[in-house]
Amino acid sequence: MTVRKCGECGGLWVDVADLNRLLLHNNLPGLESLGGKMDADAMSGQCPDCQVDLVTVVGGERQHPLHYDSCESCGGMFLESEFKDATDGKQAVSEIVAFFKAWSQTKSKRKAGAA
Q: Where are the domains of the chain?
């Protein structure tokens, strides 16, 4: 899995295909099944690969802290502040899995509350 760390903010850049493989190998749903909503008011910056504006996806509720930025051109994922402590690739992968487990649990709670 290719993970790059930003020297300025500590965020992680992950290819979406690699991310989906990681999620599936950890018994999590694929990214397309996790849901989320675009935050049109967020200023996310540009994709480091293709210089296209990034789109921020939030965990479904405006107050929920989980979010990531996505490039609509190449599909890359930028996971920012939650990953400042990742010091190596193995720890970064572990933190990414924990992030999307929390995301998946939040979605499950929202569905249970709607039922």
A: 3-109
